[in-house]
Amino acid sequence: MSGKLGDILIQQAVIDEQKLIAALADQRAFGGKLGRTLVDLGYVTEEQLVQALATQLGLTTIDLEEVNPPPEALACLPADACKRYGVFPIRVDPAQRLLWVATAEPEREPLAEVARLARHTLEPVLCTMSSIDRAIKRFYRAEGASAQGPLNEPSRETVPVDAAWEEAEADLVESPELASGSVAMPEGTFGEDEDVRTILLRLEKTVVAQGKSFRALVELLQEKGLLRRGELGTRASRKP
Q1: Which long-range contacts (CB under 8 A, 24 or more apart) does 91-94 make?
Q2: Residue 166 forms part of a structural domain
Q3: What CATH number does the domain containing 98 carry?
Q4: Which of 70, 115, 228, 230 is 20 to 30 A off residue 32, Cα-Cα?
């Protein structure tokens, strides 16, 4: 079975359309992949996401907790590459130059780079990202502290709302990212001698600039503690 990930999750009764709309809005605001956004928002579990991806892509799933990879499989990829690309080697066939890797995000370009590094043809299987992180820490012990997971997010000091808004507005005006991406339409009206392609190109540049500016604003408000992830999506999904 193939299809869009969101539609598959709806068909499997994991989420409803309202949650999908909210997640898509959150994804547009904060970036990232839809699957990871759904997990971060608490709409789906990692296991539910893996099952949906398996349905979408026709891949098999695996429980890494029950896997004991041989040393020759681990030798195909260093720990830093596993962490960078979110993969874990589980089995290798030296004669056929085949390497089975567990992944939570089976995207073509990253897997192609993994295949290049390993010098093997890859056979991807699906599992949760958290289980990959645990497997890397468990089996690449020689990496020591470098195999540790992401650091905890530093705590923020409580800032009065009015003061935070004023600071956010000041930063917004001075933000180089916003200054480089004006949200205003190009000055002047379109000339009569401009062809459609030129007009569309100018409009496309304007839309891109608006997107960059909105993204910077959202990130700024989030840093100030005025916006929590998921709030934009929830509001966008409300019916008028």
Answers
A1: 92/120
A2: yes
A3: 3.30.300.160
A4: 115
Question: SS3 sequence, the chain?
Answer: CCCCHHHHHHHCCCCCHHHHHHHHHHHHHHCCCHHHHHHHCCCCCHHHHHHHHHHHHCCCECCHHHCCCCHHHHCCCCHHHHHHHCEEEEEEECCCCEEEEEECCCCHHHHHHHHHHHCCEEEEEECCHHHHHHHHHHHCHHHHHHHCCCCCCCCCCCCCHHHHHHHHHHHHHHCHHHHHCCCCCCCCCCCCCCCHHHHHHHHHHHHHHHHHHHHHHHHHHHHCCCCCCCHHHHHHCCCC
User: How many domains is the chain built from?
Assistant: 3
In a domain, 112, yes or no: yes
Q: How many CA atoms lie within 13 A of 212 on its CB side?
A: 16
* pTM of the predicted structure, to 2 decimals: 0.60
Beta strands 87-93; 98-103: pairing state: antiparallel
Express each pLDDT in 142-180 by its tens digit: 444 333 333 333 333 444 445 544 555 555 455 554 445
**32 in a structural domain:** yes
Helix 196-223 crosses helix 17-30 at what angle (to 10 degrees)? 90
Same domain, 79 and 42: no
Mean pLDDT over 50-56 rounds to 96
Mean per-residue pLDDT over the chain, rounded: 77
